[in-house]
């Protein structure tokens, strides 16, 4: 959380209190404890994109005669 506050302060030019409040609000409205995907779990959309890329690459390999 400290790193998140540092990043917010640097990128938005906020003071410590304002940056902490912004990070706290983000965490409070997030589905996960730290406001990002849990380790080892891809968000749903990203998982579908990865699957699509793998399928397209496999299809291209079959068509080209890999």
Topology:
Layout (H helix, E strand, L loop, with lengths): L1 H11 L3 H13 L15 H21 L2
Show unreliable segments. none
Mean pLDDT comes to: 81
Distance between the termini: 47 Å
Report the order of strands and helices.
HHH
Considering DSSP H and I runs of 4 or more, what fraction of the residues is helical?
55-70%
Helix and strand content put the structural class at: mainly alpha
In DSSP terms (H or I, runs of 4 or more residues), the helix count works out at 3
Query: What would the principal axes of the Cα set say about the shape?
Result: elongated
Strand content: under 5%
The major beta sheet can be summarized as: none
**What number of domains?**
2
Q: Whole-number radius of gyration? A: 19 Å
Q: How many runs of DSSP E, i.e. beta strands?
A: 0
GO biological process, one term: translation
Transmembrane segments: 45-64
Pfam families: Ribosomal_L12 (PF00542)
Domain Large ribosomal subunit protein bL12 C-terminal: 2-25
Describe this structure in words.
The protein has 66 residues and is an all-alpha fold. It has two domains: 1-35, no CATH class; 42-66. Helices cover 68% and strands 0% of the residues. The protein has helices at 2-12, 16-28, 44-64. The protein is elongated, with a radius of gyration of 19 Å. The termini are far apart. The mean pLDDT is 81.
């Amino acid at each position: 959380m400290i790193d998140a506050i540092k990043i917010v302060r640097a990128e938005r030019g906020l003071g410590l209190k304002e940056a902490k409040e912004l990070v706290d609000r983000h965490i409070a409205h997030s589905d996960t404890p730290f406001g990002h995907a849990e380790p080892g779990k891809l968000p749903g959309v990203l998982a579908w994109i990865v699957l699509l890329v793998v399928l397209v690459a496999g299809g291209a390999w079959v068509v080209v005669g890999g």
